[in-house]
Each structure stands twice: as structure tokens, then as C-alpha cells.
Write a structure and sequence with these properties.
Layout (H helix, E strand, L loop, with lengths): L8 H8 L4 H13 L6 H10 L4 H9 L9 H8 L2
Helix pairs in contact: 1-2
Length: about 80
């Protein structure tokens, strides 16, 4: 099954590798455990999130800093694990 934005799963897996072990773990775990069954909206948000810069992802996912509203649903999903 092709991801929502037309990006292959292998490419998404590569994009999950951020160079920070904590981020890698969170993103790769979501990709493997939840992405396949998620809605097209959440899949698209995840794919967009992967385009953001590492310091922003770190702030939003690990430090609990506010993120843009377009990412709220996917961030809730990522934090739920």
C-alpha cells in the first residue's frame, strides 16, 4: 500500500532517521505500529511532519513545546505510545 502522499514506506522509514535516537525511535515506531492503519489525514500529517527541521521536532515531541495546529492530531498520536 502506497502512503498517503505517494511516498514509499521505505522512503518514509529513511526520513524517520533524524540523527537523534529519541526522535528516531518515536518516528520509526509510529511508522511501523500505527501508520498502516491510520486515516489518510493522519498519514498526510505524518508525512508533512517528517519535512520539519530536527530542532522543531525535538521541541514538539520531546520538550512539549507548542506546535502548529496542523500537527496537533499527529503529535497526539505520536505521544500516545
Amino acid at each position: 500500500m502506497q502512503p498517503a502522499g505517494g511516498t514509499s514506506r521505505q522512503r518514509l522509514r529513511w526520513q524517520c532517521r533524524r540523527g537523534m535516537l529519541e526522535l528516531d525511535y518515536i518516528l520509526e515506531d509510529y511508522l511501523e505500529q500505527h501508520y498502516p492503519a491510520d486515516t489518510a489525514e493522519l498519514k498526510a500529517a505524518f508525512e508533512a511532519l517528517l519535512q520539519e527541521q530536527d530542532p522543531d521536532l525535538q521541541a514538539w515531541l520531546l520538550q512539549g513545546q507548542p506546535a502548529p495546529s496542523r500537527y496537533q492530531a499527529i503529535l497526539r498520536s505520536l505521544r500516545a505510545d
